[in-house]
Amino acid sequence: MNTLVKSGGAWMVSPSLAAAALRRIRVSGFATSSSSSSSPNWEGGVSLVQGASRGIGLEFVRQLLEKNEKGYVVATCRNPKDATSLSDLKNRFSERLVIQKLDVTDEATIEESAESVKDRYGSLNLLVNAAGILSIPGVLQPETTLYKVEKSSLMLAYEVNAVGPMLMMKHMWPLLKAGGGSGTEREVAVVANLSARVGSIGDNRLGGWHSYRASKTALNQLTKNVSVELGRRKDPVVCILLHPGTVDTDLSRPFQKNVPEGKLFTREYSVQKLLHIINNAKKQDNGKFFAWDGQEIPW
Ligand SMILES: NC(=O)c1ccc[n+]([C@@H]2O[C@H](COP(=O)([O-])OP(=O)(O)OC[C@H]3O[C@@H](n4cnc5c(N)ncnc54)[C@H](OP(=O)(O)O)[C@@H]3O)[C@@H](O)[C@H]2O)c1
């Protein structure tokens, strides 16, 4: 409980209240924060993009800010100081963009982010989980054969690509509320998890990439499971899985030479397509796995 306590004859704010206030200051980067009770009407909605330092996540932040001039965006990333493109956006949209430090492998940072969003805005209309790993030099290699499989790679891909978004949903769902589509009122709150077509079991004809594929398959099942639970709420949340196509980012760069002509999308194009799906999401889309063009992908 946040109460006044007596210490050495003087009344003081309880340690928990002081800690919460300090946390607000640290996370938001401002010395004041709007409480939910006194918050203005966040007319254009509040979106949170997790994994926003670069690639598709960064592009989501840019388009959400540019296309909805009344929208607010919380962008999270592991190392805000190194996220220079995100800082550039902060300079352009200082009033409507908040940057928070969040590592999906550290649940405390997720909890802290959720508390900060609650204090500042009271609710959230869109959650985009974009962070994902496919290869990390010397640490994680997409396996081309079974004998290259390492337990550490399987676990790491699962931790970032599947457990991470699950923990995000766990801590953010109480905040999710309908509203705030691109300039219009979306009918439902949306959770959009960036999956990949290679996570489809039905579509798996090539094999390989065991860690990445299986982690995305796990993400699909976890998201589907959550969609059933959240779909029962009075104010339903629509949880969808999105395949962005093959997009020109750091993640795909080492594998781009095999991409057929015209099939390597720009980040701008892919996110434009994905935002179209998100902004038109309906209750009946809950628990579905969509490609960038709106086609459903088999499980
Ligand atoms: N690009 C494609 O062709 C493609 C195709 C299918 C699916 N996808 C999916 O789309 C999503 C975005 O991919 P992308 O191409 O934009 O990748 P990217 O350019 O490599 O960016 C990956 C992002 O994930 C973040 N990240 C990695 N580990 C993290 C952690 N532990 N905690 C928080 N953030 C972490 C990175 O942050 P740092 O800067 O801190 O490393 C970076 O912001 C991924 O889920 C990917 O699987 C991409």
Question: How is the secondary structure organized here?
Answer:
Elements: E1 4-7, E2 10-13, H1 15-28, E3 46-50, H2 55-67, E4 72-77, H3 84-92, E5 97-101, H4 107-121, E6 126-129, H5 151-172, E7 189-194, H6 210-230, E8 237-243, E9 246-247, E10 264-265, H7 267-279, E11 289-291
Parallel strand pairs: 3-4, 3-6, 4-5, 6-7, 7-8, 8-11, 9-10
Antiparallel strand pairs: 1-2
Helix pairs in contact: 1-4, 2-7, 4-5, 5-6
Bound molecules: NADP nicotinamide-adenine-dinucleotide phosphate (NAP).
NADP nicotinamide-adenine-dinucleotide phosphate (NAP) binds next to helix 2 and strand 9.
Structural key phrases:
single chain, 299 residues, alpha/beta, Rossmann fold, seven-stranded parallel β-sheet, 7 helices, 11 strands, 16% strand, globular, disordered N terminus, binds NADP nicotinamide-adenine-dinucleotide phosphate, NAD(P)-bd_dom_sf, SDR_fam, Fungal_SecMetab_SDRs
Description of the molecule:
- The protein is an alpha/beta fold and about 300 residues long.
- It has one domain (about 45-290): NAD(P)-binding Rossmann-like Domain (Rossmann fold, 3-Layer(aba) Sandwich), CATH 3.40.50.
- Helix content is about 35%, strand content about 15%.
- It is built from seven helices and eleven strands.
- It has helices spanning about 15-30, 55-65, 85-90, 105-120, 150-170, 210-230, 265-280, and strands at about 5, 10-15, 45-50, 70-75, 95-100, 125-130, 190-195, 235-245, 245, 265, 290.
- The strands form three sheets. The protein has a seven-stranded parallel beta sheet, sandwiched between helices. The protein has a two-stranded antiparallel sheet with strand order 1-2. Strands 9-10 form a two-stranded parallel sheet.
- β6 (about 125-130), α5 and β7 (about 190-195) form a beta-alpha-beta unit.
- α1 packs across α4 (about 105-120) and α2 (about 55-65) crosses α7.
- The radius of gyration is 20 Å and the shape is globular.
- The model is unreliable at about 1-40 (pLDDT under 50).
- The chain binds NADP nicotinamide-adenine-dinucleotide phosphate.
- NADP nicotinamide-adenine-dinucleotide phosphate binds near residues 55, 56, 57, 160 and 249.
- NADP nicotinamide-adenine-dinucleotide phosphate (NAP) binds near residues 53, 79, 133, 196 and 246.
